[in-house]
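Obj: model holo form, ligand = magnesium ion.
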Amino acid sequence: MNVSKEHVNIIGHRGAAGLAPENTQISFEMASQSGIDGVEFDVQMTKDKKLVVIHDHDVKRITKEDGLVKDFTLTEIKKLDAGGYFSPEYKGQQILTLEETLDLVKDFNIINLEIKNGPVIYPEIEEKVIYVIKQFKLEDKIIISSFNHYTLNKIKQIEPDIKTGVLYMAGLYQPWEYINKIKAWSAHPYFAGVRPEIVRGCQKKGVNVIVFGVNDDHVIEKLIKMGVDGIITDFPDRAKDIRDKYLN
Ligand code: G3P
Ligand code: MG
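Output (holo structure tokens):
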């Protein structure tokens, strides 16, 4: 993975959530067409313990149906329309399995797989995710991130070589101390709390900084100038243009 000051990695959030229905095939295809470095997506588990790629714990917002992801079987969840909420032209997009998703994104340099494990807890989701990653031989490219840091710790116990990323919203003091303690590869802070001394402090201690939640052009530019290692955004096409203009 090429992570350096000279190359701020642009990572599409839920594929390219600003351009297409999030976490769907069309979203990952659009991210790919943007020529960006990577994608981020969210993993949960169905009633019959299949890994699926969806952000919310319930299916309401993107399918207009009622129910929690954990209460659908894979066959049931596959019948839902996950594209029409975004635009009628994307009606019929399905909720993808992790396997289908990895097949679509395997050629990106960075694959950021976020495990959703709270407030709905999915027992043994860590083992299941690692099993699939190994089947695809993507151990080197994947960064597993989560807001549940017990999940990240468990991932390192099962597979010490897989990179983990610590997601957080709060203004952590000297985050590199904590992040190194749980042997994570990267900090994934919400953009609003990111300051130059945090970026420098992390990088000095070998922690990469991948910022999420940023869609405003001026803020994207500010973060690029700060020298963050990656930016996760709903509009990866725009972010790439800003980066390329600044770095060339
Ligand atoms: O991984 C970055 C970002 O996706 C974390 O927040 O809620 O969009 O999954 P969320
Ligand atoms: Mg996410």
